[in-house]
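Record type: monomer structure entry
Structure origin: computed from sequence
Chain ID: A
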Amino acid sequence: MTTHGGFEPVFCTIIPPHILDKIVQHEDPAISGPARETLQRDAYERTHRRLTTVLGAPTLAAPATTDKPRRTIYDAKHKQDLPGKKVRAEGSEPGKDATVNRAYAGLGATFELYLNAFNRHSIDGEGLPLNASVHYDVNYDNAFWNGEQMVFGDGDGELFLDFTIPVDVIGHELTHGVTQYTANLTYFGQSGALNESVSDVFGSLIKQYSLGQTAADADWLIGAGLLAPRVTGVALRSMKAPGTAYDDDALGKDPQPATMDGFIKTGSDNGGVHLNSGIPNHAFYLVADALGGHAWEKAGQIWYDVLTGGELKKDALFTDFATLTVAAAKTRFGDGGEELQAVQKAWEQVGVPTS
């Protein structure tokens, strides 16, 4: 296991607190109730994660690195005890439970993108087994990486559907593990927003890779297919147009800014990590769109070089990350190429200086 600056796994959820906070104010208990219970459960899991980090997680024998994933899916059976009952192991045939099958496939899609595009063996780079629990709790409106495994709720059916449906949600959460084992970005303020943005970036790339999409083909949405039919919206976030993913009476209006002009100063959500991530998200989209083709080949490679290069500090600001992407573009593609120009222009467009 290699980490940059120490091993500090954090508790990360795909549904931001600001959305759940808005939902609990709804007058219909069928809508507000599951959100309230989800916030309570998330608070417990977050505290548990901190205690585990302080006390030390169990040490596992390092597996031999291979080009094949090691997936295990568990069924929590709507309880809160993890991991639950083992229901599918690596190499076994699909069963009748579509949620189990989607989780298995999503773990595989994540493994394949990192291996084939970046020669990374699992999220730790050393073949870490990928474990996931499905059917967690009752009407649980979230999915999370807890530093050791993936956990998926089934949603409440009113606002959110099964959290294994969008493969980019799976990729997003597992990428928190990649960040945990590499740059280990502090989960607060701008470094926390970068942490979230990196997960959105590679979550989107995992979806694009699994679908064989180019940058022009991709929808650049995070969580498309997760929102229930009654919700006015298309996804949780849009990298192409931050602030436009949803506008709903229960969820509220998507608050993400696309540029530094809209940067949100707040003490909630760990200093707005799910809010201001829209700014570096949009910068990545602009780079990928300008370069065209498969986004993981150039734009994704630049971002991956920065994440894993060892120079990105745990408490990095947007300008620190942007400056490193410029350097990475020069190193990988040369001084006079379109790649460097695309990176510099993208950060300029979102209002982040690169020097």
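Annotation 1: DSSP finds ten helices and ten strands in the chain.
Annotation 2: Residues 330 and 336 are 8 Å apart (CA to CA).
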